[in-house]
Amino acid sequence: MKKSFLLLSLSLLISINFASAQYQKKEQLNKKGAKMETEKTAIEKLFFDYQDALNTSNVNKVLSLYTKDGVFMPTGGPSAIGREQVKGSYEFVFKAIELKLKFQIDEIVIIDEKYAFARTISRGTQVLRETGVKEPEEGRELFILQKEDGQWKIARYIFNK
Question: In terms of pTM, does the model score above 0.85?
């Protein structure tokens, strides 16, 4: 009888410990999932802010969305590396064209707490400032994102038409 009671008690303790471990694991996964959703929302906001900066030709706003050592790699142009070159590239772009774009986010992958990447498509129009000619504009973009000072920023950006 004592042996049966002892086996039953031991079995019950093992079951409770196993259930507790499973519950803790599930709670950790839930917390991780909620954190990932929060991070994805922050990255989506970054893209909407970038879209707004492009559509208003706001160089300072664009710069605030890049890391200090950010790299901009435009189609057919040289790479701009670092804040001053990125600033010069966007000043050149905004002097030449006026953009009205809308971003579609195709993929956001969070690699870890500091890095992520995203694929987007932008569609809209561009107006050539010199001639006033309005034409359709569409591009595919790849962004490498980095958390800097607690905020997601653009670390590397390349696009093609």
Answer: no
* DSSP designation for 112: S
Residue 126 parent element (H or E): strand 115-128
SS3 state at 133: coil
User: Quick one: which H or E segment has residue 41?
Assistant: helix 2-55
**Chain-wide mean pLDDT for the chain?**
88
CA atoms 6, 7, 11, 17: torsion sign: positive
> Phi, psi at residue 18, to the nearest 5°?
-65, -45
Tell whether the model's pLDDT for residue 140 goes beyond 90.
yes
Joined together, the tokens standing for residue 131 give: 């001639």
The per-residue DSSP string of 49-106 comes to: HHHHHHHTT-HHHHHHTEEEEEEEE-TTSPPEESHHHHHHHHHHHHHHEEEEEEEEEE
